[in-house]
Amino acid sequence: MTADLGALPLRPDLAGLEPYGAPQLDVPHLLNVNENPYAPAPDVVADIAAAVAEAAGGLNRYPDRDFEALRTDLAGYLRVESGVELAVEQIWAANGSNEIMLHVLQAFGGPGRTVLSFAPTYSMYPEYARDTFTGWVAGRREADFALDPDVARAALAEHAPSVVLLASPNNPTGTALPPAAVLAVLDAAAAVPGGCVVVVDEAYGEFRRAGVPSALELLADHPHLAVSRTMSKAFGLAGARVGYLAAAPALVDALRVVRLPYHLSAVTQAVARAALRHAPALMAQVGSLRDERDALVDWLRERGLTVADSDANFVLFGLFDDRHAVWQGLLDRGVLIREVGPEGWLRVSVGTPQDMVAFKDALVEVAGL
Ligand code: PMP
Predict the structure, then answer these.
(1) Where does the record place the Aminotransferase class I/classII large domain (predicted)?
(2) DSSP H or E run through 99
């Protein structure tokens, strides 16, 4: 039976809208949603299973609402990964960084307020804005997808947002922001009347190239900064839905007000903690994905394609007169990538070496390289 939406009091601004999401197709090479291509190793699976079994014995009770143990483990992980010392009160977590961002906008956005970002960027951002009744403004990135500090300052002065979302490395372009650009936004945000929270979305942070710093290093001096991360990418745990954020304790306290009670299930907490115990091995895998990414960028450039610099686990490349035909040709050969970004560009996630061979062979055929 199909639902008759006409009879339901749907919010007028939601009428006719489709749910967000890339196609989930059953093809051999899934390179369209920037997942980690490596399934958890057998020892990680065994540890996760044991942790879930233990949690299962207590599922008659609600979980630890403040998930202190998980927050402690996440702080420990960030200390090793970025060299930044954080207290447990500075860490927050939720069901994916999508939910983290929703918490941020529930607390700091809302009717009559504006969230600002710089396009092209992650296509969920306007949806968080819509769902929290926050106004959405997209400033512009440069032709090479960098953010000009003067453009950023002017946009903040003009729109006086209460939240700025900066994806770095950015999706779908892969571009990381240099500290100068982030600092320019932080300075301009400090001057916004009524205050402004700056979120640096580092969903792909672990894939950044050597010498590119994390915005976590700026936290100590900027109480209006929040850095969000996820276990979906580097940890290869997209199915578990765990995102997290680091910020000043007062900012985290504001997020605690808007979260649903017990939003992070005992099973989720157990899975995340078990995976974090394997961080060193998982990070070694991130190293090989980074190498695979750099090799892919070189290969595409050698064939005369334009490729955005990437600090992520995906690459934006082009330019094609008919990008849809290229996307379809790859799909016909069992390789699913993403038709996203400015006109003419396509995005491919970094997969296993076998995935990359299949992608390259298919692209050579389809695009006549
Ligand atoms: N931020 C960016 C920039 C992303 O690309 C994604 C996932 N595609 C997310 C956040 C959300 O990831 P998750 O909810 O799985 O943590």
Answers:
(1) 31-356
(2) helix 96-108
Pairing of strands 197-201, 163-167: parallel
Find the 204 Cα to ligand 1 centroid distance in Å: 8
DSSP label of 93: E
Q: At what angle do helices 353-367 and 323-332 cross, to 10 degrees?
A: 130
Asked if the ipTM is above 0.90, the reply is yes
Measured between alpha carbons, how far is 97 from 118 in angstroms, rounded to an integer?
18
> What beta strand segments (E) does 123-201 contain?
135-140, 163-167, 197-201
Please write the tens of the pLDDT for every residue from 91-136: 999 999 999 999 999 999 999 999 999 999 999 999 999 999 999 9
Indicate if ligand 1 lies below 6 Å from the C-beta of 22.
no
Q: Which domains can be identified in the chain, with CATH numbers?
A: 19-34+280-367 (3.90.1150.10), 43-277 (3.40.640.10)
**Residue 132 C-alpha to ligand 1 middle, in angstroms?**
18
